[in-house]
Amino acid sequence: MKPELERAKNVDLITFPEGIDSINCYNCRWIKDKKYGSGYCSNKHVQQEVSSHMCCNLWDSKGTTRSWEK
User: Fold this and answer.
1) What is the pLDDT of residues 27-44, one digit of tens each?
2) In angstroms, rounded to a whole number, what is the distance separating the alpha carbons of residues 6 and 4?
């Protein structure tokens, strides 16, 4: 793997999918039972209520790309 791709992988450098300008729990694939601005995070490492003002390094969404993945 190229050095720049290895560095990108180490920090989980992502490219947002179309229509996503910033990340928060509310637009993450792990959120379930969405209510206005909050919901439940179903990721096995979180499993708790979260709000649209929160975000963690496990954020992901359909269409997100990672340059080191093919």
Assistant:
1) 999 999 888 878 999 999
2) 5
Which pLDDT does position 33 carry in this prediction?
Answer: 87
> What's the one-letter identity of residue 6?
E
Averaged confidence pLDDT in the chain: 91
Roughly how many angstroms between the first and final C-alpha of the chain, as a whole number? 12
Which contiguous run of DSSP H or E holds residue 6? helix 3-10
Phi, psi values for residue 49, rounded to 5°: -65, 135
Instruction: For residues 13-24, give the mean pLDDT.
Output: 91
Which long-range contacts (C-beta less than 8 Å, at least 24 apart) are formed by 17-24?
Answer: 17/61, 17/62, 17/63, 17/64, 17/65, 18/63, 20/61, 20/63, 20/64, 23/55, 23/59, 23/61, 24/52, 24/53, 24/54, 24/55, 24/59
